[in-house]
Design goal:
The chain contains nine helices and eleven strands. The protein starts with 15 loop residues before the first helix and ends with a helix. The strands form three sheets. The chain has a six-stranded mixed beta sheet, with helices on both faces. It has a single domain, classed as GpdQ, beta-strand dimerisation domain (Transcription Regulator spoIIAA). It is an alpha/beta fold. Bound molecules: zinc ion. The site of zinc ion (ZN) has 6 residues, from loops. Keywords: Glycoprotein, Hydrolase, Secreted. Belongs to the acid sphingomyelinase family.
């Protein structure tokens, strides 16, 4: 789960215990609904207090250790994962003999983090990622990457970007280097439902990122962004097919299955690239579906003029800043 579970509006002045209570209650709920499922948590930029300011010093483990203990995440993450987490809010976990999951703290690259501006490698996370990916390649493992803040551009924010440009480049280069073993990347943060296709220098689609919408319903204060209904993304089955649940009233219900609404027979970068190509026609029904789901069925966001259309296309296919 990628946490956007704490309230956002007054987060900078919100007492720290309220953040912890929010994170704890979401965790409790997930544990009770999915009692026999292993949960992997990643930090959201609003989860700690104060928001966005993640420290980068791996010698000082008290900050991330404190988060782990107070949030009870150490009860769902294993001993090894927790030990890694102390260094910078990141970890690696073995899901099966052939599959490894790497949970990253990409809040360290968020340009709202004043502590990490212009460092060689905040919390040495890229170094950690590199070592984990090398290890995975050596053992013929495939890798899932999960994190909160995605690289690239927000599709609704008139060119709004998240990472510092230097970290955006550094991060994408590392992902590109190991794209052959990274089968899926999952992110949150935007509250919207979208995806990204990463290309190599020759323009070949090499990796894919799914951006899950948020549990938290909200109306953004950013101009033109609008609102979203609450939702939960379930990634199920061998191929990791995503199903999205939504709530537009009192009850939760299935919103859609990715394979059905986008007519995808496989979930891989080339297929999502084909889908993005279909989106170049603004009237295409697949793009119309995407618009509906982008805000989790919040009707106000389905009007999309030419500029809006271009923002979506560029955000999906252009991750470099
Ligand atoms: Zn966020």
């Amino acid at each position: 789960m990628s946490f956007s579970s704490t309230g956002h509006k007054t987060v900078n002045t919100r007492p720290v215990c309220k953040n912890i209570i929010s994170v704890l209650s979401v965790l409790d709920e997930l544990v009770s609904v999915f009692p026999n499922t292993t949960l992997y948590t990643v930090l959201g930029n609003h989860d700690p207090y104060p928001a966005n300011q993640m420290p980068y010093d791996t010698d000082n483990t008290a900050y991330y250790k404190g988060i782990l203990e107070k949030s009870n995440w150490d009860s769902v993450l294993g001993v090894n994962e927790s030990r890694h987490f102390h260094n910078g809010g990141y970890y690696s976990a073995t899901i099966s003999e052939k599959l490894r999951l790497i949970g990253l703290n990409t809040n360290l690259y968020y340009d709202q983090d004043r502590l990490t501006k212009d460092l060689p490698d905040p919390a040495q996370q890229i170094d950690f990622l590199d070592k984990q990916l090398q290890e995975a390649r050596k053992h013929n493992n495939m890798v899932y990457i999960i994190a909160h803040v995605p690289p690239g551009v927000f599709e609704l924010g008139s060119g709004l970007t998240w990472f510092y440009p230097k970290y955006n480049k550094q991060y994408l280069e590392k992902l590109e280097e190991f794209a052959d073993i990274i089968s899926l990347q999952l992110y949150g943060h935007e509250h919207t439902d979208s995806f990204r296709v990463q290309f190599d220098a020759e323009g070949k689609p090499i990796s894919m990122m799914l951006l899950a919408p948020a549990v938290t319903p909200w109306k953004s204060t950013l101009p033109g962004v609008g609102a979203n209904n609450p939702s939960i993304r379930l990634t199920t089955g061998k191929m990791g097919w995503p199903r999205t649940m939504c709530s537009t009233g009192d009850d939760w219900q299935k919103e859609y299955d990715t394979s059905d609404v986008y007519a995808l027979d496989e979930l891989r970068p080339a297929k999502l690239h084909e889908l993005a190509r279909a989106f170049t026609d603004r009237s295409n029904k697949l793009f119309q579906h995407y618009l509906q789901y982008n805000s989790v069925l919040w009707a106000g966001n389905t009007e999309c003029n030419e500029t809006c259309h271009l923002h979506h296309l560029c955000a999906i296919t252009q991750l470099r800043l």
